[in-house]
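Example record used in the benchmark description.
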Amino acid sequence: MDKLVREIIYSPEYEAYYAGLDSRTKEKYDYVEHIIKTQDVVKKKYVKHLENTELYEVRVSLGSNEYRTILFAVDAASFMQATKILYLNSFLKKDTKQYKREISKAYRLLEKYMED
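Model output (structure tokens):
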């Protein structure tokens, strides 16, 4: 078993999205999640900082589909330093305008998380 570097906390919104995925897509999500949990340095292919925000995106590619999960580093200023991360919301990437809506949604979920 690999040593865990990061703990992932799942929002109910993420869990609902994940539950609705087909088994092949879940397999790919699980693969990327394993990398995030067990590797100190994660390539931009899998996790990328979202410009002008304090958020990051998990990047899952499957065929021509690009899935994104917005995350927040709970206990550090950056993802690489974090030992706890929060998966906020996920979506199938369609266009760049969609990002603004999803980022707004992620901030609302983050506020809700911080209140609890």
